[in-house]
Write a structure and sequence with these properties.
67% helix, 162 residues, globular, mainly alpha, single chain, 7 helices
């Protein structure tokens, strides 16, 4: 049993656990990061019609809330960055899609690009992952991966007429 008394470390009585665990998507027994990213797609679809400033404002809010929720949840679990914490994947994917064209092919491309950057962890993602502690560190590597994926996606959108 985990310190919180729940086998997975998830405590349904704590709001920060709900957020950090991506509203349960991080409880997937296999590939919780991928499951968390998939779970972020409906939120993206809900937010995508918003004007860009509102979308970005919510993204900043989600990042700040994530720093708090992931920090507290990781501390509760006694781990630096538990794989079940997937709010960082949610925010990273939403950042990936910040300027993406509409359509399911772009969502799929954004999903693949974000997962590649998140798993591969090229510089500077790897530096943030290793060197930045706490909730900021949990969030930052995925935000950087999301920004890198967003750049690739935006460049692709200039040349690929889908």
């Amino acid at each position: 049993m985990s310190p919180s008394g729940f086998k997975s470390g998830f405590n349904p009585r704590r709001l920060h656990h709900w957020i950090a665990f991506g509203f349960g998507s991080g409880l997937s027994p296999r590939a919780p990061g991928t499951a968390g990213t998939l779970a972020a797609i409906p939120l993206y679809l809900l937010l995508s019609p918003l004007a860009w400033p509102f979308y970005v404002g919510l993204l900043v809010l989600f990042m700040l809330v994530g720093i708090w929720a992931c920090e507290r949840t990781a501390r509760d679990m006694g781990s630096k960055d538990p794989s079940a914490i997937v709010w960082d994947e949610w925010v990273g994917f939403l950042l990936t899609m910040v300027a993406a064209p509409a359509g399911w092919l772009w969502i799929l491309a954004g999903f693949v690009l974000f997962r590649l950057f998140d798993i591969w962890k090229p510089w500077p993602v790897s530096v943030a992952d290793r060197k930045v502690p706490g909730g900021l560190g949990i969030m930052l590597d995925d935000v950087i991966a999301g920004a890198m994926a967003a750049i690739v996606l935006a460049l692709a959108a200039l040349w690929v007429p889908i």
